[in-house]
Design brief:
Structural class of chain A: alpha/beta
Helix content of chain B: 40-55%
Helix content of chain A: 40-55%
Distance between the termini of chain B: 56 Å
CATH superfamily of the largest domain in chain B: P-loop containing nucleotide triphosphate hydrolases
Low-confidence stretches of chain B: 1-9
Order of helices and strands of chain A: HHHHHHHEEHEEHEEHHHHEHEHEHH
Oligomer: heterodimer
Number of helices of chain B: 16
CATH topology of the largest domain in chain A: Rossmann fold
CATH topology of the largest domain in chain B: Rossmann fold
Strand content of chain A: 5-15%
Largest sheet of chain B: 5 strands, parallel
Strand content of chain B: 5-15%
Low-confidence stretches of chain A: 1-9, 87-153
CATH architecture of the largest domain in chain A: 3-Layer(aba) Sandwich
Distance between the termini of chain A: 61 Å
Mean pLDDT of chain A: 69
Mean pLDDT of chain B: 87
Order of helices and strands of chain B: HHHEHEHEHHEHEHEEEHEHHHHHH
CATH class of the largest domain in chain B: Alpha Beta
Largest sheet of chain A: 6 strands, mixed
Number of domains of chain B: 3
CATH class of the largest domain in chain A: Alpha Beta
Number of strands of chain A: 9
Shape of chain A: flat
Chain lengths: 399, 304
């Protein structure tokens, strides 16, 4: 770490070169670094002595980080580059949580839900194997659920795999999103009619009449986009529906400025940013890393607790609608689920629980967790076919 | 881009060593990274964004900096619905109306009246405009930027990069001096990437035990070392519990004051007082319920 700054001239050039390379490394690792930041990094390095890296570290940290996640992993990257610690990591440090880099990029891990594999398929050659597998299991589902022909809208979502139908799902998500996009806020704008006088413009206009306000101008409240947070249960009992709802979530995310998405199983995974990712290969890589660790059992209560602890503060507000898609079969304690749904409800505007099983004859919310959570849910609705989802539209429009 | 502050004029006051000394003299215990970040705001002319939980001393940084630099502190408290009228400027409507009435009898054309009414004497300066029209650069604290809405954030970003404000009736007002800007956020909403990139960033974490002890000693000097150490250990352990609103430094100090006010110099044997004064640290019913008596006892026995 020492010995670089032997003679002033040579030392400085070496420092500049190393800083430029480091800034590039930071950018490759997802730090939001542009040209301005690179130039400022060089200004910051003026007169820096590499024998004592502490000022350089804190300076670059303040400059290159833009959020808590960056802040938490900066030191690791800095040490790897400047102090030669942990350099064997092939240059890239994975996300904030230090997730396991076990799966090779581009190749979906074996336990990826079908919807994700389906997207993997589109990415090109590397993902073919996984895609084939998903199609096989999809076909099986179709056979298992074969029944009398119904109108398309009434087809149980488990049986939908026709691309045209999936396009309809996307369209429906878009329409629902449009329904709840804007609501009133406290911000105001100038209007011809309204409750409050807009003095500034009134005075402006009154000047022509010698100061008598002949044509008053008013202000009215502005509308503001609503937020939407979706939770999708991807456990075994829901697996037949996950392709569909994953598509639905993507439709909502694409059409909603403030939407976020999570999936849960035994633990909670934040997939919103990955769904937004335009670059398909990167999206798959990110989803692949996230899905590591999915296994049997469904811990809805615990997953929601993770959300309430880590994400709720930045995601929920009084304009947020929470949609949970799950069959309610929870292997955790029912009180925990009830408590966590109650906390969600307190922070959000509405909590909607969509349950694909309600559509089945004889289904009652007997699952203990489900029953415990019911009192805190604003709308408990079926979601087993497109028609039942479309039925949400008037409800969402009223909120 | 505004001109950088004269590097030669007063280089001493903005160097890390000088700032560290200044902050310490003002009673604010800052770590090296924070000092470096503040020092860089001068060198690189960027605003500083402080993020962290409530009560970790974000706002205090700006107040202390104003004290250290011996310059005024201008504070803009953000809230939902904050708009240019409250943040930048507003016309003084009452005076305008009055002036128009007075001129009624005089022979002045409407166009001329309009020009007079929209002169600077009828302008009410709100924090942002005030901050850029001072002779000596002030510290501008934009508190809880996450509470304002996106529209205002975008506008603010423009002001922070140009340091000029356009008033349609008056024209563009250039900054007389560039203020030192500190923004704070509690992360109740994600800020835009553009604003984040524009700013230097510092995450203010809960202090370590040693640092918190130094803070308590500096702020509550009348408190004995033994009690101070116990108080800090207790609060540090309490933060490890699963509670919604973890006590910040402000709460620790409140509690320290409450305890010294009771005339206590040792927590040992005073568990009942601890339980009675716990409301200084836990401020919601949920958190109070989450820490029942036996948990207090457990933390207490570890801290004492």
């Amino acid at each position: 770490m020492t010995g670089l700054a032997t003679s002033p001239g040579a030392g400085e050039a070496a420092v500049v070169g190393r800083i430029v390379a480091y800034v590039r490394l930071a950018r490759d690792n997802g730090f939001p670094v542009g040209i301005d930041e690179s130039l400022d990094a060089l200004r910051l390095a003026e007169g820096v002595d590499l024998a004592t890296p502490a000022p350089l570290r804190s300076g670059l940290k303040a400059l290159l980080c833009a959020g808590e996640a960056d802040w938490r992993r900066f030191d690791e990257l800095f040490d790897a580059y400047w102090l030669g610690r942990g350099v064997k990591r092939a240059g890239l440090i994975s996300g904030a949580g230090g997730s396991t880099p076990g799966t090779a990029a581009g190749e979906p891990p074996p336990d990826l839900p079908p919807a994700l594999i389906e997207r993997a398929e589109g990415a090109g050659g590397e993902a073919q194997a996984g895609g084939g597998e998903a199609q096989a299991s999809g076909g099986e589902a179709r056979r298992a659920g074969a029944s009398a022909a119904e109108a398309l809208g009434k087809t149980d979502l488990r049986h939908i795999d026709d691309p045209e139908e999936l396009a309809k799902v996307y369209e429906l998500a878009r329409r629902l999103a449009a329904r709840i996009k804007r609501r009133l806020t406290r911000r105001q704008r100038v209007r011809a009619k309204g409750r409050r006088l807009d003095l500034r413009n009134t005075i402006h206009r009154s000047l022509a009449y010698g100061g008598t306000p002949m044509r008053p101008v008013f202000r009215a409240r502005r509308t503001k986009p609503m937020r939407l947070v979706m939770f999708l249960d991807v456990s075994g009992s829901m697996s037949l529906y996950s392709t569909f709802f994953m598509r639905f979530m993507r439709g909502v995310i694409d059409n909603f400025r403030h939407a976020d998405a999570f999936v849960f199983h035994t633990s909670l995974v934040h997939i919103g940013p990955a769904l937004r990712e335009r670059n398909l290969e990167r999206a798959i890589e990110r989803l692949g890393l996230m899905s590591a660790g999915w296994s049997g059992g469904t811990r809805i209560g615990e997953s929601l607790a993770t959300f309430n602890r880590n994400y709720a503060k930045g995601t929920l507000n009084r304009r947020t609608i929470v949609i949970i898609v799950s069959d309610g079969y929870d292997t955790g304690p029912p009180e925990l689920l009830a408590e966590q749904v109650r906390l969600l409800r307190r922070r959000a505007k509405r909590v909607i629980w969509l349950n694909p099983m309600i559509g089945w004859r004889d289904y009652e919310p007997v699952a203990a967790g489900m029953a415990a959570a019911l009192p805190h849910i604003d709308l408990f609705a079926p979601a087993h076919n497109i028609e039942s989802l479309a039925a949400l539209e008037p409800y969402l429009a009223r909120i | 881009m505004p001109a950088p502050p004269s590097a030669n004029g007063e280089p001493d006051r903005h160097a890390p060593e000088a700032l560290r000394q200044g902050f310490e003299d003002a009673g604010y215990i800052a770590d090296n990274e924070l000092i470096m970040a503040i020092s860089l705001t001068f060198r690189l002319d960027r605003p500083l964004l402080l993020e962290g939980e409530t009560g970790v001393g974000k706002t205090e940084v700006a107040k202390t900096l104003a004290k250290v630099l011996d310059c005024p502190l201008i504070r803009l408290q953000c809230y939902e619905g904050l708009d240019a009228n409250a943040a930048v400027y507003e016309w003084n409507y009452q005076r305008q109306l009055l002036a128009i009435k007075i001129w009624e009898t005089e022979d002045i054309s409407a166009a001329e009246k309009e020009r007079h009414v929209f002169e600077e004497e009828f302008l009410l300066r709100r924090p942002l405009l005030q901050a850029i029209s001072m002779d000596k650069p002030p510290v501008l604290l934009i508190d809880e930027i996450d509470r304002s809405d996106e529209e205002f954030e975008a506008y603010l970003l423009e002001v922070l990069s140009e340091f000029q404000i356009t008033i349609p009736e008056l024209g563009t007002i250039e900054a007389r001096s560039v203020p030192h800007v500190i923004l704070t956020s509690n992360r109740s909403r994600e800020l835009s990437d553009a604003l984040r990139r524009r700013c230097l960033y510092h995450f203010v974490d809960y202090p370590t035990e040693a640092k918190e002890l130094r803070i308590v000693t500096a702020r509550v000097p009348e408190m004995g070392q033994k009690l101070a150490a116990q108080v800090v250990r207790f609060v540090q352990a309490l933060r490890q519990e699963d509670i919604d609103k973890k006590p910040g430094i402000a709460e620790t100090l409140d509690w320290a004051h409450a305890l010294t006010g009771q005339g206590i110099d040792d927590l040992a044997g005073n568990q009942d007082v601890v339980e009675d004064t716990l409301l200084c640290l836990l401020k919601t019913k949920e958190d109070r319920d989450a820490i029942p008596g036996e948990v207090v006892g457990r933390i207490f026995s570890k801290a004492v």
